[in-house]
Design a protein that fits this description.
two-stranded parallel ribbon; 2 strands; about 45% helix; alpha+beta; elongated
């Protein structure tokens, strides 16, 4: 992918959507980090602001997910 972006000769913009939970956010972060060819990254879809604004229910995710504690710490207002 990196070679293709370089061959295009223009800035690459990634628009991605993923689950707003510990695993979904980490998958997105990991993909961007591994490909490392994006001038801009725009994450679309459900986010913390929409959950708060519309009072949407929060799915806790898997208790066994090793990333869950850090995600909850980073987003305390939706996990109150």
């Amino acid at each position: 992918m990196k070679a293709r972006v370089k061959a295009e000769g223009r800035p690459a913009v990634l628009v991605l959507s993923g689950d707003f939970d510990a695993s979904g956010m980490d998958i997105s972060r990991s993909f961007v980090e591994m490909t490392s060819c994006w001038k801009k990254v725009h994450r679309i879809g459900l986010d913390e602001g929409l959950i708060t604004r519309y009072g949407l229910p929060v799915l806790r995710g898997k208790a066994t997910d090793s990333r869950a504690a850090d995600f909850i710490t980073a987003h305390p207002e939706i996990h109150a």
